[in-house]
UniProtKB/TrEMBL annotation:
It comes from Magnetospirillum moscoviense. Residues 212-378 form the Helicase ATP-binding domain. It is an enzyme of class 5 (isomerase). It comes from the Bacteria. This is Replication restart protein PriA. PROSITE patterns: HELICASE_ATP_BIND_1. Initiates the restart of stalled replication forks, which reloads the replicative helicase on sites other than the origin of replication. Recognizes and binds to abandoned replication forks and remodels them to uncover a helicase loading site. Promotes assembly of the primosome at these replication forks. Pfam families: DEAD (PF00270), PriA_3primeBD (PF17764), PriA_C (PF18074), Zn_ribbon_PriA (PF18319). Belongs to the helicase family. PriA subfamily. Zn(2+) 2 binds at residues 448, 451, 466, 469. InterPro entries: DEAD/DEAH_box_helicase_dom (IPR011545), Helicase_ATP-bd (IPR014001), P-loop_NTPase (IPR027417), PriA (IPR005259), PriA_3primeBD (IPR041222), PriA_3primeBD_sf (IPR042115), PriA_C (IPR041236), PriA_CRR (IPR040498). Zn(2+) 1 binds at residues 439, 442, 479, 482. Binds 2 zinc ions per subunit.
């Protein structure tokens, strides 16, 4: 199924030295001597390393600088397919861009070491000529006749076919009347049916689909269409086109574990399930999937950001759905943005990439404006469905009654919706019961001992939990500060509290919550989504996971409990992010025949985000945001990096941060801001200080950072984490 381009001539090395990259956070590749087996670029090998052995990948020719006497020899070449050239180049590129050690990036590419060994064979048996002197009972004869009449069967299958037990079959194997043969494992993924017809497309959909399907080489598309405009149907046409060319396709989704609806749509379009890649796969599935990607039998992979590092030999299209979503940014280990790296991967693989969104990021829109990306526009919802009408509930004028969180206009709207037999959704981006627990006597607030964060009460679980490090404890019966008994009060709402209020206010309504801790794992999520779609739930209370692309035809009202929530804090991206999230949430309403309504509860009805949402005026909002960023000299109009210095001891962290500040580069066009306490000044027991480095587009930012950090490198337990293009700033 692979095209010829997939296997360009590889460079073999024999009788010499090669550079081997190890999946470890080392500065670079190490030289090794080639053993008896010749090896080629991309081969996976086992090498000696400090008294142990390590996996590695042949990365290129060795450097003459290493003393030949010190060279150690490659132990063996693994029987795995070589790591594709494009993936090796991608690893190098990501390492150079993010300043992560190349081995740390390679580790993401060979994340399933077990997949590098051949799969365990499946043993079957087949008939042989009957040996002399074999005692032939009727059962034995039946087994031998059955074996002769079938292709090789496993012993259990043969026994079942012949209507007998395993021991009879085993006896025949021992007697030499049956022989064991190894079967090739079945391909885990069936080929998608690219030639099946999709739905009839509207004119604007058809135009966009035709443009997408036409280009096979590197090209970046922005598929910009309002929620419900059919972006998925349109990019499915591009998927079909890539499959018809015999090439592989990667689709990145922000919450792959919650994508049952997406998978169902894929199945109805292409007749089969795609391969899925995310952190909750079982080991066996992970191994089989990795191998199927490597040998090309997984034609379509839908995955989380880590799927970018799978060993596609012949990638022909990448789709990044909801390209604006913050979940694409990885913020620990190797810090990278999967959307941007998808563009890099596409360039290296010479294939197109489609970024789809109803609310594209400022970065992507700037790239469209600069002519680097090409925009395709879907202006309307499919089949005449209209966009929901968005209005505000001004909490200063019509506040909820004391101790409640839903204001009268929202309550009235929900009552009407339920009376019409329709569904409503309440959105609050906060898990648990209450974000803060405080002593009524002395005002003491329960805080995480390891993080700059309040402990969040989860009443259903009977716990106070830190949402940053997972620290969990029971509610103390005595205040640790003033020793008052039973003095703690919950402050503010989380979705558990909203669900409690909803149950109380709308008796008879079937209320259900959806958050990552109440609905966890793909199966629970799929079942939950089915219940909503089948109208077994009337009122849905959820966090941002309910915002992600679901299509619920009977859902006509969305109430945003606290529209101001995301605007708190000094983050310059807060406005953009809130606008995107709330547009996404609003987009769940009225997606079919019945029109939808959205009510935003806010204390800031004059805030530009609220005004833009109500007016449905994305373009003016984006223009104003862009203006703001340009004035502040911030991305996407300049480049930005964050350095986070951290360690267990605050004094040592401050000392080191000051030393770094003294050696900061004085380069034209580059500005170092800080050190200042990082947004989470204490996280998992580590104190954190942050530098922001702003650079003009003309400055070699990575080189400057590298030089700077080499002057006084951090010594354990201090650490410096580099985050190029940080998501928050
Ligand atoms: P978006 O991804 O832009 O939010 P979707 O692709 O989810 O939009 O489409 C919204 C709904 O409309 C889905 O149920 C989809 O199946 C349906 N739809 C979109 N385009 C068509 C079409 N051309 N024919 C039939 N159904 C369509
Ligand atoms: Zn914590």
């Amino acid at each position: 199924m692979l095209s010829a381009a997939a296997n360009p001539a590889r460079h073999f090395y024999c009788d010499s030295r090669v550079a081997v990259l190890l999946p470890l956070p080392l500065a670079g590749a190490y030289d090794y001597r080639v053993g008896a087996d010749p090896v080629a670029q991309g081969d996976v090998v086992e090498v000696p390393l400090a008294g142990r052995t390590s996996l590695g990948v042949v990365w290129g020719p060795g450097s003459a600088a290493t003393d030949p006497g010190k060279l150690r020899t490659i132990l063996r070449r693994l029987p795995a397919k070589p790591i594709p050239e494009a993936l090796c180049r991608f690893v190098d590129w990501v390492a150079a861009y993010t300043l992560a050690p190349p081995g740390a990036v390679l580790k993401m590419a060979i994340s399933v070491p077990a997949a590098l060994e051949p799969p365990a064979p499946i043993w079957a048996v087949r008939a042989r000529p009957i040996p002399d002197g074999l005692k032939l009972t009727a059962t034995r004869r039946k087994v031998l006749e059955t074996a002769a009449a079938h292709p090789p069967l496993t012993m259990a299958d043969l026994a079942r076919e012949a209507g007998t037990g395993d021991s009879v079959v085993k006896g025949l194997v021992e007697a030499g009347a049956l022989e064991k043969v190894a079967l090739a494992p079945p391909a885990p993924f069936a080929a998608p049916q690219a030639h099946r017809d999709g739905p009839a497309l509207s004119e604007s959909q058809a135009q966009a689909a035709a443009a997408l399907a036409e280009i096979a080489g590197f090209h970046v598309w922005l598929l910009d269409g309002v929620t419900g405009s059919g972006k998925t149907e349109v990019y499915f046409e591009a998927v079909a086109a890539a499959l018809k060319r015999g090439r592989q396709v990667l689709v990145l989704l922000p919450e792959i574990a919650l994508s049952a609806q997406w998978l169902g749509r894929f199945r109805s379009r292409f007749g089969v399930e795609p391969a899925v890649w995310h952190s909750e796969l079982s080991d066996g599935k992970r191994r089989a999937t990795w191998r199927a990607v490597a040998d090309g039998t997984a034609a379509v992979v839908v995955g989380a950001r880590s799927a970018l590092f799978l060993p596609f030999p012949d990638l022909g299209l990448i789709v990044v759905d909801e390209e604006h979503d913050g979940a694409f940014k990885q913020e620990d280990g190797v810090c990278y943005h999967a959307r941007d790296m998808a563009v890099v991967r596409a360039r290296i693989g010479a294939c197109p990439v489609i970024l789809a969104s109803a609310t594209p990021s400022l970065e992507t829109l700037a790239n469209v404006q600069a002519g680097r990306y090409h925009r395709l526009h879907l202006p309307d919802r499919h089949a005449g469905a209209v966009l929901p009408e968005i209005s505000m509930v001004d909490l200063r004028r019509t506040p909820p009654p004391r101790g409640f969180w839903l204001a009268p206009p929202l309550v009235a709207a929900i009552e009407r919706t339920l009376a019409e037999g329709e569904q409503a959704m309440l959105f609050l981006n906060r898990r648990g019961y209450a974000p803060l627990t405080l002593c009524r006597k002395c005002g003491h607030r329960l805080q995480c001992p390891h993080c700059t964060a309040w402990l969040v009460e989860h009443r259903q679980a009977g716990r106070l939990i830190c949402h940053h490090c997972g620290h969990a404890t029971r509610l103390p019966s005595v205040c640790p500060e003033c020793e008052a008994e039973d003095s703690f009060a919950a402050c503010g709402p989380g979705i558990e509290r909203i669900a409690e209020e909803a149950t109380h206010r709308f008796p008879g309504a079937r209320v259900a919550m959806m958050a990552s801790d109440t609905v966890s794992g793909p199966h629970a999520a799929a079942e939950f989504v089915r219940q909503v779609a089948d109208h077994e739930i009337d009122l849905l209370v959820g966090t941002q996971i309910v915002a992600k692309g679901y299509h619920f035809p009977m859902l006509t009202l969305v109430g945003v409990v606290d529209a101001d929530l995301g605007l708190e804090g000094g983050d310059l991206r807060a406005g953009e992010r809130t606008f995107q999230l709330l547009s996404q949430v609003a987009g769940r309403a009225g997606r079919a025949e019945r029109p939808g309504r959205v009510l935003l509860q806010t204390f800031q009805p004059d805030h530009p985000v609220m005004r833009a949402l109500v007016a449905g005026d994305r373009d003016s909002f984006i223009a104003a945001e862009a203006e703001c960023r340009r004035d502040a000299g911030m991305p996407p109009f300049a480049r930005l990096a964050a350095l986070i210095v951290s360690g267990p001891d605050a004094g040592a962290v401050d000392d080191y941060a000051r030393r770094l500040a003294r050696t900061a580069p004085h380069t034209e066009g580059l500005e170092v801001i800080g050190p200042a306490p990082a947004p989470m000044a204490l996280l998992r027991g580590r104190h954190r200080r942050r530098f922001l480095i702003k650079a003009a587009r003309t400055v070699a930012l990575q080189a400057a950072l590298k030089e700077w950090l080499a002057i006084c490198p951090a010594k354990q337990p201090l650490r410096v984490q580099v985050d190029i293009d940080p998501y928050s700033f």
